[in-house]
Specification:
The protein has 146 residues and is an alpha+beta fold. The protein has four helices and eight strands, in the order ααββββββββαα. The termini are far apart.
Amino acid sequence: MMPTDPDRLTRYACFRALTEDQRQAVAQLVREECFYPGHTLFQEGKPGTQLYMLAAGEVEVLYKIGEGDPTRVDTVGEGEILGCSSLIDPYTYSSTARCLSEIETLVLDAETLRKLMEEDCQIGYSIQKHIIQMLLDRIIDLRLGA
C-alpha cells in the first residue's frame, strides 16, 4: 500500500494547522478506499473502529429516533469527516453513515490514530478542536432544522 500524500490531508480542517512532519505521521496511517451507493460505512451503536475522510461522493447521516427506522439528519460531501465518535470514549458510533453515491475515502484506524494523538498532543488538540466545532455546528443545524 502506497502512503497517502500528506498534502491531501490539508483538505480537512483538523489537519491544516499541523506541521509537515505531523501530517506525514498521520498520512502514514491512512489507507484509501472506495465504496458503492447503498454501502453502510458504519452503524449507530456499533464499536467505532474507523475515521472516514470523504474525498469524493456523498454520504447520508442517519439517527435512530424512538422505535422507528433511522432518519436522515444530514448529507455530507467532499472534505467532510465521518465517524468522529470513534475518537471519543466510549468509542461507539453515534449515527449511521450510508453512501448515496460512489465515494472515495481516506480511512484511519481509530485506535491507531488515538495513540498518535496521545503521543503528539498538538495533533490531538488540532483534531479534537475541529471535532468539537463540527459537532457543535451539527447540533445547531439540527436545532434549526437545517
